[in-house]
Design goal:
The chain is an alpha+beta fold. Helix content is 56%, strand content 6%.
């Protein structure tokens, strides 16, 4: 697939995927205009599979045909190349902010995500409650941080907030009443605040599903 004549990067995405959400938010925050291709994960475009055979989103294809098919790598790429236009996001790569951000993101992407999936897909109420309880260690960690500040690492957004937001949102939506009435008041406040951000609401607009040109 030839992208050399494409002015804008091409982003294969799925609107509700938490990995794709955080990649889109980072691109939006850094004011990077992309050609967005919303895909149906049950009928993936052939050309997307040619580009990245593992078939997961997001996938960013640069005009020089460089492929970035990990959400966190897309976020860091966008920050390194374009965040100079926004002093706040540019600071996200400072060592004192970047390293603690990556530590939280690592916990989210590994231990917490595995427990979230068990909770989200469980159909038995008692078993689901058990999975939720096992995942609460991460809620406790985040809530403790947020009791002292408005964002995870201070009073301004960082890479950690944007990267973790979609997963806490997904966790909350499994049983939103439980989450709202839980003891994690600071975390609830944080989530509700981030859901009002322009960069979140812009990237969550519904898109027409991309249909492959190959077939």
């Amino acid at each position: 697939m030839n992208f050399k004549n494409t002015v804008k990067p091409v982003l294969y995405s799925f609107r509700r995927c938490p990995y794709a959400i955080r990649a889109r938010m980072s691109l939006e925050l850094c004011k990077i205009d992309v050609c967005l291709r919303e895909v149906n994960l049950s009928d993936k475009p052939i050309e997307m599979l040619h580009i990245s055979p593992k078939g997961t989103v997001p996938i960013l294809v640069l005009p020089d045909e460089t492929v970035i098919d990990e959400s966190l790598a897309i976020m860091i790429w966008s920050l390194k190349r374009f965040s100079h236009i926004n002093k706040k996001t540019h600071r996200w790569l400072d060592k004192t902010i970047y390293e603690p951000s990556m530590q939280l993101i690592h916990r989210n992407d590994n231990s917490f995500k595995a427990l979230l999936d068990k909770y989200k897909y469980c159909t038995d109420p008692d078993e689901a409650a058990n999975h939720r309880e096992k995942a609460e260690w991460f809620l406790i960690l985040l809530n403790d941080l947020l009791e002292k500040r408005s964002c995870l690492l201070g009073d301004e957004l960082t890479l950690a907030d944007i990267a973790i937001l979609p997963f806490i949102r997904q966790f909350a939506l499994v049983d939103y009443d439980w989450f709202l009435n839980s003891r994690y008041k600071a975390l609830v406040r944080w989530l509700q605040y981030l859901l009002t951000l322009d960069c979140f609401n812009k990237v969550m607009l519904k898109q027409v599903v991309f249909r492959s040109a190959i077939g």
